[in-house]
């Protein structure tokens, strides 16, 4: 009888130990935030871009490249649905609505209009949105404050342009400037914000401002024609509408020897004279790191939005020579990149 009781106790102890080990193993996986289903999961990401031009394409490429470095390989553990609204606000909304209907795991939005459309479409859902290439995230209604987590489904990288530095750069090239022209789309909140900052700054320096607003890229050439004989230089912010018609703008201004300064570096590669601009490729990579954090378990609303971390002073030497514009030695000495 004693032997039977002893054997039963041994069996009970062994079974208890096995159950304890099994429970400990499961608990370890939970603590790491990993479960069996996650190892085979394929994430579906909607990528929405407002218009096709080199600066924004760099944003997208930086994003895709960094996602690989974060361990997300397309076709293996992640799938991208990449859409471009071709400058059409209604199409941007349609794209965002479709992503929500498709129940994507997250939306990566490039530019202010695409980000606003994604924010509106995902309202009331738990689909996270990561934005980039947004100059004024607060003014455009995406977030409440630059330095605080939103508590919503939205976070991202805001890239307030260094407008004052851009205006000072124009002043270095043209010390006796009196008239500065602006071309932008008043329907783009980021452009309005940057133009207002630029106006306030240059008017404090005694410069006169001549503004022309366009509603579509088809109006850019006419806008350039209207400014060419009236201003000493033209500045275009990171405006999706205007930059998508940059070649037409450049042709009109170069014919009249009017220098063009822009808010983005890729436009300098294409023929503008110079800028202090955001590094768009790095901006995309920065946004990818934020999205990776979300896919790994963090909530978008708990991630504090980040300011773009890298800017570049770029000069196009050929563009300046073509309009007989001298490049100050002080600018050459500081330049991060010179386009020959």
From TrEMBL:
CDD domains: PBP1_ABC_unchar_transporter. Keywords: Signal. InterPro entries: ABC_transpt-TYRBP-like (IPR007487), Peripla_BP_I (IPR028082). It comes from the Bacteria. It holds the Pfam family ABC_sub_bind. Residues 1-28 form the signal peptide. This is Putative ABC transport system substrate-binding protein. It comes from Desulfallas thermosapovorans DSM 6562.
């Amino acid at each position: 009888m004693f032997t039977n009781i002893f054997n039963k106790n041994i069996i009970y102890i062994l079974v208890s130990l096995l159950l304890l080990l099994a429970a400990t193993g499961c608990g370890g996986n939970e603590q790491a935030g990993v479960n069996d289903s996650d190892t085979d999961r394929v994430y579906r990401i909607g990528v929405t871009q407002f218009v096709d031009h080199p600066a924004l394409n760099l944003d997208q490429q930086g994003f895709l490249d960094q996602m690989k470095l974060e361990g997300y390989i397309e076709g293996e553990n992640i799938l991208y649905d990449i859409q471009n609204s071709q400058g059409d606000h209604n199409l941007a909304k349609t794209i965002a609505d479709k992503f929500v209907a498709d129940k994507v795991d997250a939306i990566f939005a490039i530019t202010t209009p695409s980000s606003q459309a994604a924010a509106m479409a995902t309202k009331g859902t738990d689909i996270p949105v990561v934005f980039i290439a947004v100059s004024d995230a607060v003014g455009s209604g995406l977030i409440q404050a630059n330095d605080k987590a939103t508590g919503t489904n939205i976070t991202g990288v805001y890239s307030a342009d260094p407008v004052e530095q851009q205006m000072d750069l124009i002043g270095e090239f043209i010390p006796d400037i009196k008239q500065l022209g602006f071309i932008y789309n008043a329907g783009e909140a980021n452009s309005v914000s940057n133009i207002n900052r630029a106006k306030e700054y240059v008017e404090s320096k005694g410069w006169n401002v001549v503004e022309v607003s366009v509603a579509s890229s088809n109006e850019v050439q006419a806008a350039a024609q209207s400014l060419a004989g009236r201003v000493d230089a033209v500045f275009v912010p990171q405006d999706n509408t205007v930059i998508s018609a940059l070649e037409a703008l450049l042709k009109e201004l170069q014919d009249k020897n009017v220098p063009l300064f822009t808010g983005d570096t890729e436009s300098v590669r294409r023929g503008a004279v110079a800028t202090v601009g955001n590094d768009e490729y790095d901006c995309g990579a920065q946004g990818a790191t934020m999205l990776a954090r979300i896919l790994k378990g963090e909530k978008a609303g708990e991630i504090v939005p980040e300011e773009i971390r890298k800017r570049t002073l770029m000069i196009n030497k050929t563009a300046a020579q073509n309009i007989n514009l001298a490049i100050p030695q002080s600018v050459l000495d500081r330049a991060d990149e010179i386009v020959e």
